[in-house]
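Recall from the previous chapter that SMILES is a line notation for molecules. Here it describes magnesium ion.
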Amino acid sequence: MRTIELRRVSREFRSADATVAAVSDVSVAVQPGSFTTIVGLSGCGKTTLLRLMAGLIEPTSGILHSDEGPIGIMRHTAALVFQDARLLPWLNVETNLLLALRRERLPRNEARERVSSALSSVGMFSWRSAYPRALSGGMAQRINLARALCRRQKLWLLDEPFSALDAINRRALQTELLRLWSETSPTVVLVTHDVPEAVLLSDRILTMSDGRIISDRSVGLPRPRTPTDHAFGEMVAETFATLG
Ligand SMILES: Nc1ncnc2c1ncn2[C@@H]1O[C@H](COP(=O)(O)OP(=O)(O)OP(=O)(O)O)[C@@H](O)[C@H]1O
Ligand SMILES: [Mg+2]
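With both inputs in hand, we obtain:
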């Protein structure tokens, strides 16, 4: 569990001929153990906001803080799944995951066990000896998720982790993500373009537009949630409406 607090955070990108305000004056506090989803149209600043929370980039102005201390001085200890995540092509799947666990300094047996259980939870255990080139986009995405989750961090920052998956696998992984979340209650911030996914998974939905948070709504529906329920459909429609 980890608290994340942003106070008046902005981030610009400057090039020779233009300045882009990717994130503008965002103030938000994410509660420990909560599941927050960020939605918004392409280019509205979602990935930039997540990279700021991870301490991968510095804000142009404003303050980011967590119960671990200030964010932005060094990379934050979080499980990260980014849109452009890559596995090392010269290592097989299992070794890629073991490498991610190296910093935990676990006994070898325990590390292998964690990797096996993470691979099983995303349905990729039988692919443990495969090399990344043999994986489809959706398979690589499942491995990326397993790689992030096997470290058992208290903060998960997930940027469209299911975007390359077919509907069946997407549904299975959503369920699995919820199961893992309820087991250890990490703080989760997930970016998605899929509004029903946001309603299915999260406690709170933030809508971004032009670098700002323009809507902040809690999802009061009891879990497990059923997409065919009337209240679920209403929440989906209301969230779509915030996208403009
Ligand atoms: N490293 C960078 N250098 C310059 N501009 C950037 C950089 N990263 C992001 N931007 C710009 O900042 C804005 C927000 O980008 P960001 O990647 O955060 O959007 P996004 O909401 O994640 O979009 P998508 O849904 O397409 O992934 C865009 O205008 C983008 O061009
Ligand atoms: Mg993005």
